[in-house]
Amino acid sequence: MNRVRILVLNAALGPLDYSVPGDMAVEPGSVVIAPLGPRTVTGIVWDDGRLPGNDVPASKLRPLREIVPVPPLAAPLRRLIEWTADYYCAHLASVARMVLSSGGALGGPTVTTEYRLSGGAPERMTAQREQAIAALEGEQGTIRELAAIAGVSEGVLRGLVNQGAIEPVSVSIDRPYPPANADYHQPSLSDDQMAVAKELVDAVNARGFAPFLLDGVTGSGKTETYFEPVAQAIRMGRQVLVLLPEIALTENFLARFEQRFGAAPVQWHSSLKSTERRRAWRAIASGDAQVVVGARSALFLPYADLGLIVVDEAHEVSFKQDDGVRYNARDVSVMRARFEEIPVVLASATPALESLHMANSGTYRKLELPSRFGGAELPAIHLVDLTREKPASGRWLAAPLIERLEERLVAGEQSLLFLNRRGYAPLTLCRNCGHRFQCPNCSAWLVEHRLSARLACHHCGLETRPPDACPECGEGDCLVACGPGVERIADEVAELLPEARVAVATSDTLGSPERAARFIAEVEARAIDVIVGTQLVTKGFHFPELTLVGVVDADLGLEGGDLRAAERTYQQVAQVAGRAGRGAKPGEVLIQTRHPDAPVIAALADGDRDAFYAAETEARRDAGAPPFGRWAAIIISAEDEREAREASVRLGDTRPSASDLMILGPAPAPLALLRGRYRYRFLVNARRSANLQDTLRDWLGRQEVPPGVRIGVDIDPYSFV
Ligand SMILES: Nc1ncnc2c1ncn2[C@@H]1O[C@H](COP(=O)(O)OP(=O)(O)OP(=O)(O)O)[C@@H](O)[C@H]1O
Ligand SMILES: [Zn+2]
Fold first, then answer.
1. I need a labelling partner for 22 at 20 to 30 A (CA). Which of 109, 417, 457, 461 fits?
2. What is this model's ipTM?
3. Which of 182, 180, 314 has its CA nearest to residue 243?
4. Domain covering 629-715, topology
């Protein structure tokens, strides 16, 4: 090969052709550095004939500069990149960047400096130095890590380095991970678990594409069950990817993984340090990383020999990425498994309707775990009709729920209250003039967070201190909180049950793996009586002493009424209900609602999942919604309102007409202003027969848009704002 076309990692540039110097051996998938004008670019050598390009005469081609010393991306991964870009109407370069996402992995130093106690004492001892030396016995890490461990500032540790009490050590970034042992601790599986595990192990042995839906009730032991095919892949020397929806769930998973396999898996998520990312990326690409557990971005890593993918809590909305390449990791997992020719397991107690439909139509194999492990019963579910049982004014917990909370406290058992609203109150206004506090960058209210004494926008991240006086009328000390968030419910519990130890569990309080781990440890040590949490604590957690779950407002998710509102409500409530009574003691669930007769609420109360899914399926069929038809959202945005509006009107004028595709809009998006950009939206509803992506590409590609206007395409959207 002396002429190659490379996919350049820059979406603004198309594929480019280069010549290959005689002493350079490249193959499709090789990562290379190429000259471009006075600079260089990184790119991936692509298969002949698969990328469009211009036919520069051979004599004009510039030679590649060098090969990056990492394994070439394998053909299945190259096909996945192509498929993802094509399906989600994204740039190939943007998808490829996700594969090479650890910039440092491609070059950079291979050693880093860590620190540890030298055994010597500092010339001058202070209380803080003493504390640090006591805490750092046996520890090694960066100054920042050690400061966190010792609970002192980095300055204190630097002082100790200068005085020789702490010494630098040079460590290899690419040092190997401790190996997982497939047979470290074999649990004894129930008959149901064994039957399911056997099918999955057989599929791993068969080395072919095989999609599974592992549909098991909460507490059925899905994790222990899918650990068996994981073990088999380890025995075969192949790699495994386990995708989890939230970092907060990772700690729990890590502990169980270590118990089963005697070593931790390799982690991949956004809060990894750059040296850890580099180490993980390289181990994944070389094949040394046996089992990788990660967030959705782990899906695009260059596994050397992938043998199995597991998507746990596969129904979770957070597998959908809503910026950059807008992909759904659950769906792309299945495509990756198909290209790699391996099994993929989607595990859930509340599968997405789309997944269930694929299973019922035979495209996926359905494996069921119909009962809880160890004879635990599913919890009893009761509705609390808030139109009859009214909470006291300014309160949100009704009498029956308060009574049950008291009972649990007396019995020394734990309770969980679920409300999917972070902060103290979703809306703040001025008592005097009615002014509502709104984000200046977004069409959204600012949410009061009392724990951090801030007003925050949950869309753009803006935070301000609550003002002393109303900015509108100048009245002092006039702010009123409207409606509840988890912090406010926690306050209510503290007032009602002063002796209860209450913890708020949200992404604000459990944002990092360390904080999540501390929270779990506290609950397990029974240092917490009542957890008040958002969707973050609805799934995955296993707290045996937790016997009461209260859903503060089951109607909340039904407001706004997007396509998946009923399904999401069902999933959230069923998942949070599933946290109750997982140990020896039976669990009970109270669902507060103003609409006890709404079909989804009634189905939850009756535990009639099949009825709910059947009704929801028919509603989707009538609406031409997934899985029977498809949706796409197109968002046109600009900092200038008029520019955004005019661009969307012009786009509307050139809309294609097709019998199997309907384009609604343009209309101001529900979030008409986001991060300082005005937004207009089209919604596209297509029959399954329609060629949705080609039609969109053709339509949007024809359009000239001013430089300040952006067009975003969201295929199979989850967010309708
Ligand atoms: N075969 C087994 N041997 C011993 N313990 C088991 C076994 N199977 C499951 N368990 C235990 O039962 C509990 C519930 O299992 P697990 O958390 O995997 O359920 P799950 O199906 O993932 O539930 P959810 O969907 O609610 O998260 C856990 O503590 C788990 O360790
Ligand atoms: Zn905002």
1. 109
2. 0.97
3. 314
4. Alpha-Beta Plaits (3.30.70)
